[in-house]
């Protein structure tokens, strides 16, 4: 979903506000990233949107409600910072800008801390030692950036891994190799 220039400018200021509070602290980043993820999942909930936009409900009551949502999900944010963030989100109606805020926050944090987020699919669950080894090799290939791996299992791969970092995809799966061989054989026919 696209957001307008005005919303984008406001969202950038929110991201800047969050980056000032997070600095380069992994734990703070993880908390805010989870909080934004929760808010992002609520943005299409009509009751939540109506609650946040209803002018007859005082702003402090609204911010307290969302802080309770965070607490119920095990997220403990500094009350002052979360209050400011939630107030701006509600008053400026930046619900549609939440995905943009979250992606920009991740990008800024990863750039400032020398990290890269990758998705890794494996055909079966791998032992932690194997995962760490794969992440270390990948880190070396990516210029020694810290790898933040999101592991998923996809039995259709048969064996091997499929790794995606940004727009780059490395397919080392048996399914990928079989598809490649099939394509080569069809080209020769």
Automatic annotation (TrEMBL):
The keyword Transcription regulation does not apply. Keywords: ATP synthesis, Cell membrane, CF(1), Hydrogen ion transport, Ion transport, Membrane, Transport. Pfam families: OSCP. Belongs to the ATPase delta chain family. This is ATP synthase subunit delta. Transmembrane segments: none annotated. It comes from Leptospirillum ferriphilum. GO terms for molecular function: proton-transporting ATP synthase activity, rotational mechanism.
């Amino acid at each position: 979903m696209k957001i307008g220039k005005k919303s984008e400018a406001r969202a950038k200021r929110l991201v800047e506000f969050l980056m000032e509070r997070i600095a380069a602290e992994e734990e703070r980043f993880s908390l805010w990233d989870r909080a934004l993820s929760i808010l992002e999942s609520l943005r299409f909930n009509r009751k939540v949107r109506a609650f946040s936009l209803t002018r007859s409900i005082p702003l402090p009551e609204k911010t307290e409600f969302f802080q309770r949502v965070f607490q119920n999900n095990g997220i403990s944010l500094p009350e002052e910072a979360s209050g400011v963030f939630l107030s701006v989100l509600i008053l400026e109606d930046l619900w549609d800008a939440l995905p943009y805020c979250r992606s920009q926050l991740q990008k800024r944090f990863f750039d400032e801390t020398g990290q890269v987020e990758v998705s890794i699919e494996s055909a079966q669950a791998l032992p932690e030692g194997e995962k760490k080894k794969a992440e270390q090799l990948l880190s070396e290939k990516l210029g020694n950036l810290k790898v933040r791996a999101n592991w998923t299992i996809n039995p259709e791969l048969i064996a091997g891994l499929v790794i995606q970092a940004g727009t780059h995809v490395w397919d080392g799966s048996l399914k990928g190799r079989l598809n490649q061989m099939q394509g080569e054989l069809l080209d020769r026919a």
